[in-house]
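Final report, closing paragraph on structural work. Over the funding period we assembled a curated collection of sequence-structure pairs, and we close with a single example.
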Amino acid sequence: MKTIQSLFLVLAFTVMTTAEAQTTKVNAKTQVEVKNTNAYYQQKAREDARIEQEFRAESKREEKVFWNQQKEYEKNLKSQDRRAYRVYIEAKNDAYANHYHTCNGSCPHSDYYYQQAGFYYYEYHQPRYSGTSTRATINTNIGVSTPAVRLGL
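Its predicted structure, as stored:
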């Protein structure tokens, strides 16, 4: 009986170590696939950002269609693979930040570009890019008076 128990323990231990080794191989393979996917989406984001920064439309309609296609791609990516979407957006944020500092307001971009760029990099909301001040002035008149008390004799 003890031999059967010891054989069973050895067999169970062997099966567990084999299963653990296979799991490790699968995890390593999955990590490599994730790294390749990350690299793909980083490269895709840099390429898309470059295309967006160099894009010149012939008409407002063409420009609107282009930007709607870009938004639709990002929306689909977000719904299909959130991790890839995060990698894509981070890389695009970096590309827009680099362009912001190299362009320095001298590149000719459209209003659609600045609207989209504001999503990727916060400094595109600054007045030198939008052409208008971000300050809003509101004039209000507030009057404070004391109550009048009259005593009659």
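Residues 17-26, 126-131 have pLDDT under 50 and may be disordered. The radius of gyration is 31 Å. We thank the funder for supporting this effort.
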